[in-house]
Amino acid sequence: MQTTPEHDERMAKMTFASVYPHYVSKVERKGRTKEELHAVIFWLTGFDDQALQRLIDEKATFQDFFDQSNLNANAHLITGVICGYRIEEISNPLTQKVRYLDKLVDELAKGRKMEKILRA
């Protein structure tokens, strides 16, 4: 299943700050912590707490968010289906990165061990 150009554009323009509270509530509802969420985000992007907060405050789009990131070399190991899309088959690089993050948050919320989530 491939994404449409409209879908890819919508993903690029969406702000990280608008989605972040949903990530936090999703993982906390399932008994995980904001710190664990940050560990997952930091692993994928290379951001620290300050950089993450700056991007939230700036209301950075996902395009800006991932342009400023240093994607983990093992990100390609994130596979599977999220939101109806097989991650490894997504052709748009930005949309694929957003879905990487969604998949990691989903795995965290489902109680997967951190070593597995971080592809250690």
UniProtKB/TrEMBL annotation:
Family annotation (InterPro entries): SP1917_dom_sf (IPR023204), UCP033199 (IPR014580)
The name of this protein is DUF2200 domain-containing protein
